[in-house]
Design a protein that fits this description.
Elements lengths: L7 H22 L6 E6 L6 H20 L9 E6 L4 H14 L3 E3 L4 H14 L2 E4 L14 E3 L4 H14 L4 E7 L3 H17 L3 E8 L5 H12 L4 E5 L2 H14 L5 E3 L6 H7 L7 E4 L8 H14 L5 H19 L6 H7 L3 E2 L4 E2 L12 E6 L2 E4 L2
Helix pairs in contact: 1-2, 2-11, 3-4, 5-6, 7-8, 8-9, 11-12
Amino acid sequence: MTSRAPDPARRALLLSGAAALAGVLAGACTAVPGLRLGLLAGLAGRGAGLGESGRNGALLAVEARNAAGGVGGQPVTLQVEDDGQNPDQARSALQRLVDAGVDAVIGPFTSAMAQAVLPLAEQTGLLLLSPTVTSMALVGRDDMLLRINRTTRDNAGDYAQRLIAAGHRRAAVAHDDGNRSFARSWLEEFRSAFVAAGGAVVEALPFEPGGSAATAAVVDRLQASGPDVGVLIANAVDAARLAQLWRQRAPTLPFAVAEWAATDTLIELGGRAVEGALVLQPLDRDSRAPAYLAFVADYRQRFGDEPSYGAVAAHDAATVLMAAAGQRAAGQSMKAAVLAHGPYAGLQQAVRFDAQGDGTRHVVFTEIRDGRFRPLP
């Protein structure tokens, strides 16, 4: 486990919030405003780790661009809004970004929030560039949402093949009903691929996030179905709790954790219970790419923490929007500019979009060993 500065979450929140506010004020005082970006993410509650890391990654990208002269000689501003992982709050937050006149939004970071705000984005013509959403309900559509991540079909299918190759044939799945768009899409894609490869999903149960007694009952029912492997589709906080319950009841029964939880929070909260868990990473934590190494050093120094895949993907999303804006023709929409001027240089890999604005990512399977995500061959 990595060492951490005192109270890094609070420090990160204060630093990035102050910087974001300063950016908004700077934009308001500029006679000819530069590029105005919004960021929409969950910044409180059990799933906040992904949103906070994404905000921090985007903030570093914007600050680096401004240090290099901004876009068109004007500063880039970033207005951060919390969607609260609540559809109504998310729509209100996006409306504030619309009213502020932002040119594009980094986010949302979960599929459920993307589905909640997409109608408003369509109505107002505001581009959303999500670093992380994967639900098949948001794929292959010509709309105002562009994505730089893989799909649930890609990721869940890879998990199914990996578990089959390891000799597993009976899977029991817990899935978060709070992010239903993602979790149910992931489950159905996993079930399809796992069954096609000769396996069976012997039980699949939803749970409400929060670690209640009902969650313990879900684990009991899953294990009573006679699986040879468990699959946990949850954010890092709830996945850690599920893992502890899983290990208490069946210490040697293996389990995998969906990529949504692939952050250091899973290890910090899960402790020994998550040792041996299979987790897909949408980034290579051992990458030696110079841009990535510099970003990691900056992130550690600024926030006293390790950057997760959300931070890397959000940095890439901000980079895409700033690069496209710098090449945008007069009268060209941000969406058209993004689709016209790729590929874009990301921290670890190039960012490309198809005609519908869907991207993909290289991924790495890991196993948690000795408090770290260890890459698997």
